[in-house]
Amino acid sequence: MTTLTLIQCTATKRNGTHPARQLYDESTYFRKMRAWAESRDCEYAILSAKHGLVDPDERLTDYDERGVSSNLAKQIAGKLSNRGVDTIHICAGRDYTDALIPECEAVGIDCINHFAGKGIGKRMQLLKQRTDNP
Fold first, then answer.
1. Measured torsion, CA atoms of residues 72, 69, 15, 9, in degrees rounded to the nearest 10
2. What is the pTM of this model?
3. Does residue 60 form part of some domain?
4. Is residue 91 part of a domain?
5. CATH value at residue 22
6. How many domains does the chain have?
7. DSSP codes, 103-124
8. Which residue, 11, 35, 80, 132, is the most exposed by fewest CB within 10 angstroms?
9. C-beta of residue 86 within 8 angstroms of C-beta of residue 109
10. Per-residue pLDDT of the chain (134 residues; tens, 9 = 90+)
11. Is residue 64 part of a domain?
């Protein structure tokens, strides 16, 4: 059994090329998601609107895209399945989860969306609480 935590990319990015875990550092929301992901007892990856499933150390150049399309969601679900992932813990908005969760479930991946139905303000508050008190 392999578990992975997924967090979303953000619109605010550093200019240039950086490891993915640092590319989105300009965003307070991303820093809170990353802290939550790093506090969990499993690896994490980033859902990139342009690149799909991205490992934190993968180097990316800034871009301007948002959300996960149906095609990208299928690619991500396939990569997760090929990696032997059977459970994902997600912190992402509906632009990322609406297409991704059904594709992952279709290939047998259990999806736990910790912040489903919460607006970004509430998500940020919960992320801080869960990071301060894991």
1. -90
2. 0.92
3. yes
4. yes
5. 3.40.50.10630
6. 1
7. HHHHTT-EEEETTTT--HHHHH
8. 132
9. yes
10. 799 999 999 999 999 999 999 999 889 999 999 999 999 989 999 999 999 999 999 999 989 888 999 999 999 999 999 999 999 999 999 999 999 999 999 999 999 999 999 988 899 899 988 887 65
11. yes
